[in-house]
Amino acid sequence: MRKTFAAVSVAVMALSATACSSDGSGGADGAAHVDFGYIADFNGASLLAVAVADAQGLWKKHGIDVKTSVFTNGPLQIQALGTGDLDFGYIGPGAMWLPATGKAKVVAMNTLGNADRVIAQAGTTSMAALKGKTIGVPEGTSGDMILTLALRKAGMTKDDVKIVPMDASTIVSAFTSKQIDAAGFWYPAVGTIKKTVPDLVELARNEDFADTVSFPTAFVAGNDVVTKDRAKAEKVVAVLRDAIQYRSDHLDETIAATAKMLKQPPEQVKADAANSKVLSLSELDGYTKDGTIDKWLKGMNDYFTGAGKLTGAVDPKTYYTGDLFTGAAK
């Protein structure tokens, strides 16, 4: 079963990395071209939805011709940044260890997430009840992170369960068909599963660990983009800053724009947005300057070190370009 799931996962991941769509914005003579990745949920798409909205026209305003590509997770986008297939992308907290290892730069913080869950089939009463059971998880993602934290809290490790690496869409089908007993996953996909398995059990969520670790989502750029094409990086960050301000001031309109972009019902996107804390531009500027974001990232680095993703402490200033973010203010 493990080999079958792995093969399906690889196939789905390959497809997700090549599924692209142009938003049709920009295109003016002399505009800088940007390939931008995203995930099709509120956290991953809302700023892009604002940027491409006709009423905003933020890409054109800042001289950017953008092409967007949808991905199923953050690690795939980090990989695409490394190969030059993307210039910018979006990651959840579970992939934050990749910039920390030098594979990308974090150019803008986005939201604080509370969408991650450990879900299990009906009748499962605790994490301890999963001992020896089969758990699907997209490796290196926030689903992996919430699962690891929940196991640790229960005095367990991944060696106590049967881990099956899966792509997000594979988890949906595997859980609904009861081929797996549990999953480290996230909303809105958990909501999709609930339509078929309404009695599933949520065993853990982000807020269970709020005292020890934060779960920031972020936008990332390829290392070469930041170091060799600073002007383009500044323009893109300026777009993100404008979109962040608009989103915090006009959340309902942003939800509507995101629903239109993702071709999803507005009520579904609204429910998804409720699983995140939207941060204003002034908050992000303040958190950058007062060290709050560094504190978030150091807390995450402690987790990633314990999880074996990092070998030791990493200074957030080596991969979070806070000066670029605040410097793009107009």
UniProtKB/TrEMBL annotation:
Q: Which residues form the signal peptide?
A: 1-21
Give the top-rank taxon of the lineage listed in the UniProt record for this protein.
Bacteria
Q: What are the UniProt keywords, alphabetically? A: Signal, Transport
Q: Does the keyword Acetylation apply?
A: no
Task: Name the SUPFAM superfamilies on file.
Answer: Periplasmic binding protein-like II
Question: Where does the UniProt annotation locate this protein?
Answer: Periplasm
Pfam families listed in its UniProt record: NMT1
Q: What is its main location?
A: periplasm
Record keyword Transport present = yes
Matches recorded under PROSITE patterns: PROKAR_LIPOPROTEIN
Residues covered by the SsuA/THI5-like domain: 50-250
**Family, as annotated:** Belongs to the bacterial solute-binding protein SsuA/TauA family.
**What is the protein name stated in its UniProt record?**
NitT/TauT family transport system substrate-binding protein
Species assigned in the record: Nonomuraea roseoviolacea subsp. carminata
